[in-house]
Structure formats: structure tokens, C-alpha cells
Amino acid sequence: MEAKRHLPRPVNLEEADDGVVEFSPLNQEEEGTVTIEVPVAEERAAWGSKMQFMLSCISLSVGLGNVWRFPYLVQQDGGGAFLIPYLIMMVLEGAPLFLLELGIGQRLRQGSLGVWNLISPWWGGLGVASTIVSYLVGLYYNVIIAWCFYYLFNSFKSPLPFATCPNETIESLNLTLPVEECELSSETAYFWYRQTIDASPTISETGGVKWWMALCLTLSWVLVWLCIMKGIQSSGKVVYFTAIFPYCILVIFFGRAITLKGAGEGLKHMFTPDMSKLLNPTVWMDAACQVFYSLGLAFGSLIAFASYNPMKNNCKRDAIFMCLITVFTATFATVDIFAVLGFKAVANYEKCVHHNIEKLQAISHNWTKYSENISITVDNYDKVWPKIFLPRLKEYYINETHKHIKNCSVADELNQAAEGTGLAFIVFTQAIVELPGSNFWSVCFFMMLLALGLGSQFGTMEGVITNIFDMKVFSRVRKEILTGSVCLSSLLIGMIFCTGAGEYWVGMFDTFAGSMGLIIIAFFETIVICYVYGHKKFTDDIERMIGERPGIYWQATWRFISPLTIFSIVVASVYYRISHPPDYPAWKMEEGVAVKEAYPGWAMFVCLVLLMAGFLPIPIIYFMRRCQCIRFDTDIHQASIKRVETTISTQGMIKGEEPMPRIDTSDSEWTRLFIDRVDSSTSLEDNL
Description:
The chain is mainly alpha-helical and 688 residues long. It is 62% helix and 4% strand.
């Protein structure tokens, strides 16, 4: 019997677009004739437009950290001086890593799981690690979105529920007084700790699930599922809102904030540099970490986003633009925040002055000799107040008024640093309460936080879903069902964040699941691409895609500067964790303040598990594949040329054939290398 092979014409990457070639089943058309079909792989999903891709990257990178993390660092680390290390780190690590992820995703057309298995199966753990970290970050990030929903709903109440302290009735005395916990703290702090999260005194006391927060979290996950269930076809349209709306609100806030009384004080405080802070290595570490997180590096989402781009997309221009827009957004948001905080500081200062004047007037009859010559107002307070401390009055002042007189200072008010939930839900809401039309500004602010949070959440979960969907075991599952299953599991696990200890758990996940793991993943990304995949090969890929070869800046940062910078961050972070044992701010109802407490033993174990989950898959998979405990062929169905429904019965039909001629895929080097491995000594089934 004469066996004939009908081979298709050579396939060029320009036609295949993604360079992936599929082998379909062997078909016996007539007796003695066997046909091997080598069609181009199914076309990978693509963005509806370049605008969708850019807005998705903006939504991912420009998140909540730009609004509540960056202003805190500026306030804490030297004001305007902090912008110096921030910009330096953006140049040394931010832009190079951003282009690295966009370039490798666009070139290999895979999610992060497929990319790293494709480069080297030994380093497949990078994709697994980034998927785990992204999933863990998505778990707690959606809880923050749920908190924003709760505040948004309450923003429609008039007056705002966090504007005043609620009253309680003391039946024995027949008195109605403000709640003591609120009096000891503040209206906004009480609403946050007691009426929003109902904080327990320690992380060990959960206090049960708070039904109102569970409902808000359910709403958050349902919304995420609806927006990403069809991949970029659905999320790509939502980003028109999540990326553009926050900028509209920031512009509106800017127009109002700079006209507020005290805005100048806040901006002066922001831009006044304390150059001595630059000698503190912690400031540089803060700047490096902020650049790292604000760009969304190492989550795998950027690789997934880039994989849907056309091969000739100019990813270098995209990376530079995204770094510029991130710096601009962080600075612009900080100007808004400090203008409003300046207004709040001046308002609190004036309240403090009026309080002290009332107290002085109440005791002035005891020292009329001096009070006749002392007239204190808000305008002359700073000049006149020191005169009260005349030696003959000092003893009287200490004995009679030290429990009532407050220290009034605008600078002290501005120096009260707050970050994260403290800035958004306590400090900034206190400023909103003071604004005319506070309900409108409250709705705008929390709508902005929702848009920022949801945009980042869509990108984070898209990185998870893309990687899971690229696995062969899930490739035939409808994406809506797969996405729904991931969101449902996340909702059930996320109920731990809806307990009284929920904020403590969020802080734990943020510190240990979303920090160290990402830094280590980014370090290995640069090493694998530059020294395993090959920096020359990667440079050639970039040149082939954009028509321009990366210059000395990109070469130096990829090969030397960025890895060394990230390694320094890892070492500094490890040293910081060892020298500063982890703790959390536990809310004490009796005192009305949050007190730092050490994690109990079981919580430290959870911290260790979260920390190790972010990077252990890298060495585990490396050594298991090195020791051949795991087959080299990956479960990522798009990571290599894939067979389609070839059965074992076809193996004997092609044994003994002469070597298969090379398919001309001149623009796809990895495909060419794979085809070269097919020879007459092995079956097609074994090679695939």
C-alpha cells in the first residue's frame, strides 16, 4: 500500500498572526492515502480598538493607590522631595519592566502561564505564582470596593450619617448624650469602625459576619462577573467608564478644592521639600515599591492584555505613555487631596482656637488685670497666644486649664499622616463634611473610588481568568461559567473580610500576599527574559514588532539596573520585616483609638503561608521539572503547537515516515524550533 502525505503550503507568521500552528486529526480520505492537515490555529481574541487596550491599562495601573497611598507617602517622606526618588525609580524600574511585560505578551500571544512555559518549562512557576498572587489580591481588593459601595449608598442620606455623632439615652439619669466611643474619637472614625465594619478588638475575635457588608461584597462580585464574563469583549467596553470617569471627578474636585479656604496651606505643605529625608533609605524603598504597585507589574494582567494586541503594535510607545500618565495622575490626585486636607486643617485649627478662647473667657474674671489687655481672635491667635504664658500666669494656667486648652497648629494638623482606609474613609470624609453641598461631593468621591477600584479589579481578575482558561483542562468550559465559578469561590472565601476582624485581614493580605510575592516575581521575570530567553532575542523581537531597536537605556536597565534595583528592594524588605515584627492596628472601643498590636501565633502562620504562596511555585516547579517529576509538555493548551483530537489509533499510521519538512514560519522562531524536533524515530503523538 502506498502511503501519501498531503502537506499544506508553508505558513508564514504574518498570516498566522500569533505564530501558533495546530495539527488536526489524521484523515484517511481513500484507501492507502493519509492526509495530515496543518491549519493555522484559531485566531486569539483581540481588542476592539487600540483605545480599549490603552484604557484597560490605565484602569489597571491607575487605581486606589494613586489616591490614598501616594499622597500619604508624599506627606510622610519629605513632601515635594519625595517626587525625586519616585521619578528616578520610575525611570530605572517602572518603564523597563512595563515594556518587558507588554513586549513578551505581545510577541508570544499568551497569558502569563503560557508565556513562561513557552520560554522554558523549568520557569513555568512564574505564571503559577503570578496567578496565585493576582487571585489573592483580587480577594481583598473587592472588599475595598464593597466598602466604597456602602459609603456611596450612605452618601444619599441627608445629613450625612458620618457628619454627626449618634446619641444614646442613659435611662438611670434620663439623659441623652452622644455615644461615648464617638466622642472619644470622631464622627467619621466612629462611622467607619463601628457602623461600617463594626470592628472587633482583636483579629482573634471575628464578631461574626456583618450582613450589610456581605451584601455589598456580593454586589461587588456580581458586578465584576458581569463585566469580565466574556473576557475583553465585555471588560473592554466597561473601561470607557472606569478609566475616564475618575479623571472627570478629579478635574471637578480640583476646580472646587483650590478655591477652598486653606487650600494654599495644603499645597504649600505638599510642595515644600524636606531634602534631609532623601538620606533615609526607607524613602527610596517606598518610592520603588510605589512605582512597582502603581503600574500593576508582575500580576500577569499586562502580559494577558498585550497578548490580545496585533503583532505590529508599538508596545514601546505604549509603555512610555503609561508611565507618564501614571505619574501625572498620582501628582494630580495628590494636589486635589492636599488642597482638601489644607481646608480641613484650617477648619480644625479655627475650631481649636474658638474652643480655647471660650475656655479663656470662662476663667478671665480670675485675672482681669491681664485679660483687659488681651483680645484674642482667630486672626491674631498665633501672635497673642504666647503672651498668656507670662510667668505669673503660667502656674494658674497649668493648674486650672491644662485639661481643657488644646494645642492649635495648622502644621500639626497637616502632619497627621493617614493612609489607605484611614485617609479615604476617615480623614477625607471629615473634609467632605465641611464642604457646602457635602452630599454631592461625597457621591462624587466614592463614585471615583469605585471606578478606580473596579478598573484595577477587572485587570487583576482578567489575568487570573486568562491563565485558567488557557489550561487544557478548562479550555472547553464556557468562559461565562468559568468566570462565574472563580467569582463565586472568591465571594465565599471573602466572607472572612466581612467579619468584625475584616479590616485586620485586609491589612494582612495587603502586606503579605500583595507585596513581597510581586517583587520576587518581577525579579525572576527580568532574569528569565534576559538570561534564559535571551536579551538579544527579546531585543530582536521588539525590533521586529515595532520596527525600531531598543537603545542602550533599555538594554542597560533590562540586563543590569532593573534586576539590581529589584533585588535591593527584596533585601531591604526582608530586613525591614525582620527588624520590624509585623503588627496591625486594633481598634479599642473604650479609648476611641487604634492601637498597634502584634499578630498572634496562628496569624503569623497565615502571614507566612500568604508570603510563601507568592513565590514558592517558582522553585518548586523548577526543581520538579528539572528532576523530571513533571512532564515538560504543559497543560497550557496554547503554549505550544497543539494536537486536535488525535487518538492513539493514529500512532502506527505515521511511524517510519521520513522527517516532516520544516514549515516556513520565518517570523516565529519558537515554532520552527518545535518542528525541528519531529523526526522519524518518534510518533506524532509523542512529539506533541
